[in-house]
Amino acid sequence: MKLKKLGVQLGVAVSVMMVGGTAEAKDVGDYSDVHDSDWFYPYVAEVSEKELMTGMDDVTFNPNGNLERGQFATILYRMDGAEASYEYRFPDVTGDKFYSAPVTWANDAGVIKGYENGSFGPSDKITREQLATMLYRYAGAAEYDMSASDNLDSFPDAGSVSDFAVDAMKWSVGTGIIGGDNGNLNPQGDVSRAVCATMIARLSKQTGHEHNWIAQYKTVEDYQTVTDYENQPIYEEQPIYETRPVYENVGVMIRNCGLYAGTAEEIEAANNCWTHADGTACHCGYYVTIEKRQVGTETVQVGTQQVQVGTQQVAVGSHQELVGTHQELTGYACSCGAKK
């Protein structure tokens, strides 16, 4: 399996899931346990900025914490920009871990191998000579220049380097990836997170490639919510009138010599001969009758009705209306093809 050089892939966003999280670019100044006076400060700053390693939480990098095999497999997997699916390789690596696919990739690529007993040991610590060996294998598969070498004679503990790690340690010292630990190689010493950050940062410089990051944007449409209106009638209750006739009682007095008709008052005033009218006859031979006659009209309200007197705008809903666009940052790309 041919791997990609770290110098080309260094900007690829890396998920280093120390506690199940995903790595994001980090300002090293946010870490309370990393100070600019620390020897490892520039290396932690570089791997944090380039998203190769992340903290244990927002304010803790834990530089002295031990690096585990599953974690380092994930770092290499993300650095390479590889895409792989989990497949069963080791009894102690199940498919539900953050390192499941990276371990499958690392094993198939020959970068990180399992133990002789068939296990992988994802939670096991990594020694300095083991880390050098893994990086040596990675660099070889990625077709780095592997010609650099050092005879290790300048280190008093050179003889303690395990046989499997001799070539890797010579290459690591020759390229400057390993510079010694208080004058010694300390090959069986555990690798801390600070040391891992240092070795990864040094490896990135072996390509001689300078990244020129260019911001990439996408056009995003901007919408606003617009209220929808419709015209609705305005009604008012108004009375309904009707013209009706006005009647008045009119008396009619009849006698043998003729008919006299007038109002009841006029009949009563002219009727000197009778004083006891009963409505149909009188003592002197006259008789009078009362009848209703229309004397005019009047307007009477007989009900009400709803009458439209205008219209009004009533909100009936809303819709999204495009009002413009803006540019949204999606990431950074290098002319070499790497993505940050």
Share of helical residues: 10-25%
Globally, the shape reads rod-shaped
Q: Give the averaged pLDDT, no decimals.
A: 80
Name the structural class.
Answer: alpha+beta
Compute the number of helices: 8
Biggest sheet: strands side by side, in what order? 2-1-3
Distance between the termini: 24 Å
> Unreliable stretches, pLDDT < 50, 5 or more residues?
7-22, 255-262, 271-285
Element-level helix/strand string: HHHHHHHEEHE
Q: Largest sheet at a glance?
A: 3 strands, antiparallel
Written overview of the protein:
Helices cover 23% and strands 29% of the residues. By secondary structure, the protein is an alpha+beta fold. The protein folds into two domains: 6-210, no CATH class; 220-331, no CATH class. The protein has a three-stranded antiparallel sheet. The longest helix has 14 residues, at 128-141. The protein starts with 5 loop residues before the first helix and ends in a 6-residue tail after the last strand.
Based on the model shown, name its key terms.
single chain; 340 residues; alpha+beta; 2 domains; three-stranded antiparallel sheet; 3 strands; 29% strand; rod-shaped
Could you give a short description of this structure?
This protein is an alpha+beta fold.
Helix-strand blueprint:
Layout: H1 6-9, H2 41-49, H3 69-80, H4 100-108, H5 128-141, H6 166-175, H7 193-204, E1 213-255, E2 258-263, H8 264-270, E3 287-334
Antiparallel strand pairs: 1-2, 1-3
Helix pairs in contact: 2-7, 3-4, 5-6
